[in-house]
Amino acid sequence: MSEQEPAPDEAGIGEPSAQWREYQGAPTGTEIECEGWRQEAALRMLNNNLDPEVAEKPEELVVYGGTGRAARSWDAYDAILAELRELDDEETLLVQSGKPVGRFPTHERAPRVLIANSNLVGRWDDWEQFHELEAEGKIMYGQMTAGSWAYIGTQGIIQGTYETLAELGRQEYDSDLEGKIVATGGLGGMSGAQPLAVTMNKGVCIAAEVDANRIERRLETDYLMERAEDLDEALDEAAAAADAGEPYSVAVEMNVADMLEAMAERDFVPDVVTDQTSAHDELEGYYPSGYTVDEADELREENPERYVEESLDTMERHVDAILDLQEEGAIAFEYGNNLRGQVEDHRGREDAFDFPGFVPAYIRPMFCRGRGPFRWAALSGDPADIRRTDEAVTELFPENDSLTRWIDLAQEQVSFQGLPSRVCWLGYETDDDGVTERARFALRINELVAEGEISAPIVVTRDHLDAGSVASPHRETEAMKDGTDAVADWPILNALLNCAAGADIVSVHDGGGVGIGNALHANNHVVLDGSDLAAEKAERVFTTDPGMGVIRHADAGYEDAIDEAGQSDVPVPMQDRR
Fold it and tell me: Is 151 in contact with 145 (CB distance < 8 Å)?
């Protein structure tokens, strides 16, 4: 971002829609407003994104991540709803950066909605160009699941964080995180899952958060256990819990850079240090040290250039503190927010990458086998429907002890936000009939809807952070074995293939999680309405989608992916013909 970059024009969004004020979240029940359930699912998921229980600033259309929006303006939101209500079963609606721009006749197996967000031609693909266009009302930042209408609140990221920390425990301690202290920053829409993910792995979490309201929100929803008056209290309580081997989480209201520096000054070295602040956006996401939230918001409005410089100064201190704690013995990793990239790019610090990202450190072996964050929402709004899906997934995979433990923990500890939803990491591995894990589960859910055991259709989607759907050199594709970190053909192929397979919504975005110009990624939805058509489409999509992860990593030379391709009969032409 240059010093001349304009701040986003919030006034261009307009006043909140009267429809949104009336909805206050997704419609529920079995009666629909649209021509069919596939269109109705899109309408409900869009409104679920903007549920005040789910979104960070729904009155500004912001779902999470500083400026990640579900629609470009309130006029565009109203127009999208009108189009979805009129859309028939052989039409496709086109949404360009949160604005409906066209509707064309297609066919019943085609997607009902196609979305592209934030995409710019390479030479112009940076924050400066983006914000100029955004200020003119011509584009919006869709983050990942904000602009693809797939966000389900903090419950959506919880298992990914849980899986990352579980793998860390296996690798580093040959166990879990019992007796270990994790220091981190951020308790926003995505980062708020961190304390619960730590305690689910039997560890202790100390989280810094500058916004007192976010701390209170995590306490109210049981993602966080306690709030400390100051850092010394937090350190004492965390140390006592770790010594006793008890799961515990505590937040302290302060800047994470200040917290980590203070830990080092006190010779308090956590076992693990990471963070999930919105460092990808130095203007709208990250908070510089030395300011309250209100003071920082005022500075951003009055002097955005100074705000950016002070944010980047704080990020550099943040990285230095992590490196110092790592030197003292802490296990350090970045959790995908481009903190290291910001410091390298804007402060010339190549040593910013002297600690790894979470994907190459802990997640890539799962990606090689097509395993990733499969999620689903009950369009009925009835929690009983999710409980039935929980039963179904554990019945289908009884040998998967990790999955069973996750479902048990989620039922006990994860609060629903908006539409009741669940996440579990499923992969490609095929059964004797050649049906993948994800497809087996989707087909079973479709049967339960058809049989009336689930009261209304289930919509299945996922995070963009998945095995074969993203190119992000500072996150998902960091340090690829063959050096193809920045090759963006893969998410484009993922989106095209999922269109061909019949996904109900397909989207392609630029920049989610790490900022404009730093990533390209794709997503999809499939509506399980109990019909034969839904079963046909689900089996195809949940073969193609995780299969992209297998072939992408097999192509890069990962033995786990080559092994999965062989075991599950995934054709990899150049491998097969050697």
Answer: yes
368 labelled catalytic: no
Token match 């010594």: residue? 243
> Which alpha helices (DSSP H) does 122-265 contain, by range?
127-135, 158-173, 194-200, 212-220, 231-244, 256-265
The pairing of strands 372-378 and 458-462 is antiparallel
Pairwise CA distance, residues 461 & 375, whole Å: 5
Backbone angles phi, psi at 495, to 5 degrees: -65, -45
339-381: pLDDT as tens digits: 999 999 999 999 999 999 999 999 999 999 999 999 999 999 9
Does pLDDT of 5 surpass 60?
no
- SS3 category, 255: coil
Answer left, alpha or beta for residue 274, where phi above 0 means left and psi between -120 and 50 means alpha.
Answer: beta
Joined together, the tokens standing for residue 554 give 């097999």
Answer for the pair 286, 278: CB distance below 8 angstroms, yes or no.
yes
Residue with tokens 């993922």: 494
- The residues near 57 (Cβ < 8 Å, ≥ 6 apart) are none
Q: Is 244 exposed, middle or buried (0-12, 13-18, 19+ CB in 10 A)?
A: exposed
Q: 98: closest CA among 64, 74, 121, 122? A: 74
Q: What does the alpha-carbon distance between residue 109 and residue 534 come to, in Å, rounded to a whole number?
A: 9
CA distance 223 to 212: 15
Which of these is catalytic: 34, 205, 368, 424? 424
Nearest CA to 494 out of 551, 566, 570 is that of 551
- Reference 315, options 356, 275, 350, 343; nearest CA is 343
Instruction: Identify which of 534, 482, 525, 477 has the alpha carbon closest to the alpha carbon of residue 504.
Output: 525
Using DSSP, state whether 250 is helix, strand or coil.
strand
Asked if residues 436 and 568 have their Cβ atoms less than 8 Å apart, the reply is yes
Q: pLDDT at position 25, please?
A: 97
Express each pLDDT in 292-318 by its tens digit: 999 999 999 999 999 999 999 999 999
pTM equals 0.89
Take residue 530 and report the two structure tokens written for it.
């109990």
Q: From the CB of residue 417, how many other CB atoms can be counted at a distance below 10 Å?
A: 22
User: How many angstroms separate the Cα of 514 from the Cα of each of 226, 320, 385, 472?
Assistant: 30, 20, 34, 8
Which amino acid is located at 492 in the chain?
I
Q: Are 446 and 534 in contact (CB under 8 A)?
A: yes
- Looking at this protein, which amino acid is placed at residue 394? T
Q: Which long-range contacts (CB under 8 A, 24 or more apart) does 42-45 make?
A: 42/84, 42/112, 42/113, 42/149, 42/504, 42/505, 42/525, 43/81, 43/84, 43/85, 44/379, 44/419, 44/459, 45/149, 45/150, 45/377, 45/419, 45/459, 45/461, 45/505, 45/525
HEC-encoded secondary structure of 105-124: ECCCCCCCEEEEECCCCHHH
